[in-house]
Design brief:
Rossmann fold; 8-stranded mixed sheet; alpha/beta
Length: about 240
C-alpha cells in the first residue's frame, strides 16, 4: 500500500488529509473521521494502522485532520464551516472514487459528521461508529468531552443529547447498516446502546475496556482489529449483492 498526503482546498480553508491506496485494484473506498481535534494519524498511528489494515483488503482510505487543527489548522472552526470543510474534502475524494462503494468510520465526536457524509453519499455501504459522542460539540477552546476528567476537577457533566447528531445517525441508518463499537467502561455506553437500538444498528460492546481516547496500546489494537473485521464483513456483503 502507499500513503499520499494531500491538501484539499475548501471554502473554509485547506483540509489536510492522507489517501492510502491498496496495492491491488481498489474494491471500495473508506472515509475515516476522527474526533474533535483529532489528527489523520491518530494516537500511536491508530488511524494510519487502521487505514493500512483496510487497504490490505483492497480499500482506498481518506483520513483527515479535524478542521482547525494540525494540517487543517487554516480551516476555520465553527459548526457550519467545519461540516462544510469535511463535506468538500469528502466530495474531492469521492470525485476520484465515484465507482466504488463507500465505507465510513467515525470516532467520538466525528461520528455525527461521518454519518452525515454516509447519508448523502451515492453508494454508502456501511458506517462504523466508534464510541459515538452524542452531546453538543464543544467549542475549540473547550475540548472537554463527556467522561474526561479535567485536571484538578471533577468529571465533566453528561451533556444532553445533540439532536443534530442523532438526526445524522438516523438519516445514515436509512441508507446503510450502522455498526456501533463501544467499550463496556465507556461512560456513554448506555446512551449509545439506547440510540443504536432505536436506529436498528448492531452494537458490539468490548468487555472490560473504555475505547474513548484510545488511551492504551491494547485498546488501540482492539479498535484496529474490530474495524478491519467490520470492513471485511461489509466487503463480503457488497460482493454478494
Amino acid at each position: 500500500m502507499s500513503d499520499h498526503p494531500v491538501l484539499v482546498p475548501t471554502q473554509a480553508g485547506p483540509l489536510g488529509a492522507i489517501v492510502t491506496e491498496p496495492e491491488m485494484a481498489a474494491v471500495a473506498a473508506c472515509l475515516i473521521v476522527p474526533g474533535v481535534g483529532g489528527h489523520r494519524t491518530g494516537v500511536n498511528q491508530l488511524w494510519t494502522r487502521t487505514a493500512w489494515a483496510l487497504a490490505e483488503n483492497g480499500v482506498v482510505v481518506f483520513r483527515m485532520d479535524w478542521p482547525g487543527f494540525a494540517e487543517s489548522s487554516l480551516a476555520m472552526p465553527g459548526q457550519a464551516k467545519r461540516k462544510r470543510a469535511i463535506a468538500e474534502g469528502v466530495a474531492w475524494f469521492r470525485a476520484r472514487t465515484a465507482e466504488l462503494p463507500l465505507l465510513v468510520v467515525g470516532a467520538c465526536a466525528g461520528v455525527g459528521a461521518a454519518a452525515s457524509m454516509a447519508a448523502r453519499d451515492r453508494e454508502p455501504a456501511g458506517v462504523c461508529a466508534i464510541e459515538p459522542y452524542l452531546g453538543p460539540l464543544p467549542r475549540r477552546s473547550r475540548l472537554r468531552l463527556r467522561g474526561i476528567r479535567p485536571v484538578g476537577g471533577r468529571p465533566a457533566r453528561r451533556q444532553p443529547l445533540d439532536p443534530r447528531t442523532v438526526e445524522d445517525l438516523s438519516r445514515a441508518a436509512g441508507r446503510a447498516p450502522i455498526h456501533v463499537l463501544v467499550g463496556e467502561r465507556d461512560r456513554s455506553r448506555q446512551d449509545v446502546v439506547d440510540i443504536a437500538q432505536r436506529l436498528g444498528a448492531t452494537v458490539e460492546i468490548v468487555p472490560s475496556v473504555a475505547l474513548h481516547g484510545h488511551a492504551t496500546t491494547a485498546v488501540q489494537a482492539i479498535t484496529i482489529e474490530r474495524v478491519a473485521r467490520w470492513g471485511r464483513e461489509i466487503l463480503a456483503e457488497v460482493a454478494g449483492r
